[in-house]
Design goal:
The protein has about 200 residues and is mainly α. Helix content is about 75%, strand content about 0%. Helix 2 runs antiparallel to helix 3 and helix 2 packs across helix 4.
Length: about 200
């Protein structure tokens, strides 16, 4: 255990200096010490395990990319809290914007705001989408239907199917890749409507 973490007992101030010089083992130790705190804070703000995991990655990637200036940070704990809060709020704002766009585009189609050509394409795309979804592997199809057609969150689908959230994420990523390949020439607005996560 100690061989795997040679800097386990190094003071944080010294650890930051080593990280600033590009010491990857020091960075690994920094990650091990703080990843749980960043994750817990992220999930408290976003209420999503998947988003929290991505925020942890983003926070520490940013630290590594800006490692040369890390020695100038007086209170690393406070810096992490601030960075985590900023990343979380950015994620929440993007999700809110995405949700608003979905509602606006859907209302446009339903209310007749879209022109007749778009409405025809929308109806045709729905039929094509169903055909493509039917060609997906059984579990991937089920995951897609639970997420998109029933509106379940990744965590809820994972619990329902007794699989990990990561597996759900992978299934959705591959399913959407397959669908996009069939719809790559379709009108951009309709693509958003058909592929937007609910």
């Amino acid at each position: 255990m100690y061989a795997e973490r040679p800097y386990k007992n190094v003071l944080e101030s010294e650890l930051l200096i080593k990280v600033s010089t590009g010491d990857q083992k020091a960075f690994t130790e920094l990650f091990e010490r703080h990843q749980t705190l960043v994750y817990d804070f992220s999930i408290k703000l976003t209420r999503s395990k998947i988003q929290a995991e991505e925020i942890v990655q983003n926070v520490f990637i940013r630290i590594w990319l800006n490692r040369a200036t890390i020695v100038n940070i007086e209170n690393f704990g406070a810096y992490l809290n601030r960075a985590t809060r900023n990343h979380s709020y950015t994620v929440l704002k993007k999700l809110a914007a995405q949700s608003n766009r979905e509602v606006e585009l859907t209302e446009q189609v339903v209310s007749g705001g879209a022109n007749a050509e778009h409405l025809v394409l929308y109806n045709d795309s729905a039929k094509i989408l169903k055909t493509v979804v039917d060609t997906l592997p059984p579990q991937r199809k089920l995951v897609y239907e639970l997420c998109h057609e029933q509106g379940l969150k990744y965590e809820e689908v994972a619990a329902k199917l007794n699989i990990s959230s990561g597996t759900v994420h992978t299934h959705m990523k591959l399913a959407l890749k397959t669908i996009r390949a069939h719809f790559k020439h379709m009108d951009a607005m309709l693509l958003v409507i058909m592929l937007m996560k609910r």
